[in-house]
Design brief:
By secondary structure, the protein is of the alpha/beta class. 34% of the residues lie in helices and 16% in strands. The protein has helices spanning 16-24, 44-61, 75-87, 101-110, 226-231, 241-256, 259-280, 308-317, 342-358; strands at 5-6, 67-72, 93-98, 115-121, 145-147, 150-151, 156-157, 169-172, 189-193, 204-209, 284-285, 297-302, 320-321, 332-335. The strands form 4 sheets. It has a 7-stranded mixed sheet with strand order 2-10-9-8-5-3-4. Strands 11-12-14 form a 3-stranded antiparallel sheet, with helices on one face. Bound molecules: pyridoxal-5'-phosphate. Pyridoxal-5'-phosphate is lined by residues 10, 75-77, 102, 148, 152, 172, 174-175, 193. Residues 10, 75-77, 102, 148, 152, 172, 174-175, 193 line the site of pyridoxal-5'-phosphate (PLP).
Length: 359
């Protein structure tokens, strides 16, 4: 079998150039006498890799000087707890925007530690749009406002950074970070699991304003304390070294593609191509309001749900995989992360047209 077009939501496709680079770096990394997987996380070899990765990420996103970048384990889900424990005091109100499945998971975790106020919820509308900013009921003095700018499962995306006054804005950007330019300075904290646009599973990136460090509650597990991790250069314990190295390669690849502005344009075109095809068809349907449609995750259903299995089987036959919807929703979904080339989207659109013709 050759390589397929992978539309999975994460772990997801990697650029072939990055895979080739990894292969070149095996079994011996550039004069170090061993592979990255075998290096001490505290040795000079790995430190150079780690520092280069951070420098590249800072350059790509123009991260302001007064932000710390952490390379952690535990996945985006562990940040649901870390955010609450680091940024709020017991009993303090925290604001959350509910846009779907992943914000729901973040809210449920925060409720274990905080008084959660949901500022607005997309639930009454079936999560087909992001609640309009005018309707959000912010809590004066809330410790922070948490949002999920891209709902990976629902395919709903908040395309503008919301204006929230003095409230620190926290964002789970797991499925949208590095998909386009971003004004980091508008956020107090951004976190993302790496297994979509930043490389492979095992790494979570946190970008946090330095002024917010040092406020973790006394009960916070030491490894979840952002200050501990920042002071240790994310090496408070053994870091996810290989995933960190791969992230560095991804950052380098993004710069080679022309940076985030160029990638953003490409991602916008890819998404538009697919939505136009879906909207023009009688078989495929995406119910998200046009203004809230995600560039990264495109869920869709078939007018005849009984055809789903046949669709997935024929797609696989055509070398198109990872199109199953999330287990919580069913249906179909195409994820169009950075490493999914325009040619893959063309192939998908052509396949969908042909499948519709045959059925
Ligand atoms: C938006 C979002 N948040 C959180 C998660 C959970 O990430 P992890 O599995 O790294 O904990 C995901 C995973 O797909 C996600 O898409």
């Amino acid at each position: 079998v050759g390589r397929v077009h992978n539309f999975a939501a994460g772990p997801a496709a990697l650029p072939e150039a990055v895979l080739a680079r990894i292969r070149e770096d095996l079994p011996e990394y550039r004069g170090c006498g061993m592979s990255v997987m075998e290096m001490s996380h505290r040795g000079a070899g790995f430190r150079a890799i780690a520092e280069a990765a951070e420098a590249r990420l800072r350059a790509l996103l123009a991260i302001p000087e007064d932000y710390r970048v952490l390379f952690l384990q535990g996945g985006a889900s562990l940040q649901f707890s870390a955010v609450a424990l680091n940024l709020s005091e017991a009993g303090q109100v925290v604001d959350y925007l509910d846009t779907g499945y992943w914000s729901g998971r973040a809210i449920a975790e925060a409720r274990r530690f905080c008084e959660v106020n949901v500022v607005a919820s997309g639930a009454p509308g079936g999560y087909r749009a992001v609640p309009a900013r005018e309707g959000w009921r912010l809590t004066p003095g809330a410790a922070y406002l948490h949002c999920t700018p891209n709902e990976t499962i629902g395919g709903v995306e908040l395309h503008q950074v919301p204006e929230v006054g003095a409230t620190p804005l926290v964002a789970d950007m797991s499925s949208t970070l590095l998909s386009r330019p971003l004004e980091v300075g508008r956020f107090a904290l951004i976190y993302a699991g790496a297994q979509k646009n930043l490389g492979i599973a095992g790494l979570t990136v946190v970008i946090v304003r330095a002024g917010l460090l040092g406020r973790a509650r006394a009960i916070t597990p030491r490894l979840l304390d952002y200050r501990v991790q920042a002071e240790a250069g994310s090496l408070a314990n053994t870091a996810p070294t290989f995933a960190w190295y791969v992230a560095g390669l991804l950052f380098e690849w993004i710069a080679e593609q022309g940076g985030l502005a160029a990638l953003g344009e490409r991602n916008r075109r890819k998404a538009e191509r697919l939505y136009v095809a879906i909207d023009a068809s009688a078989l495929y349907h995406n119910g998200v309001e046009p203004g809230a449609r995600s560039w990264m995750n495109v869920p869709f259903t078939l007018a005849e749900p009984a055809l789903e299995a046949a669709f997935l089987a024929a797609a696989r036959e055509a070398g198109l995989v990872g199109l199953e919807g999330h287990r919580s929703t069913g249906g179909l979904r195409a994820s169009l992360y950075n490493a999914v080339p325009e040619a893959a989207v063309e192939a998908l659109v052509a396949f969908m047209g042909e499948f519709e013709r045959l059925h």
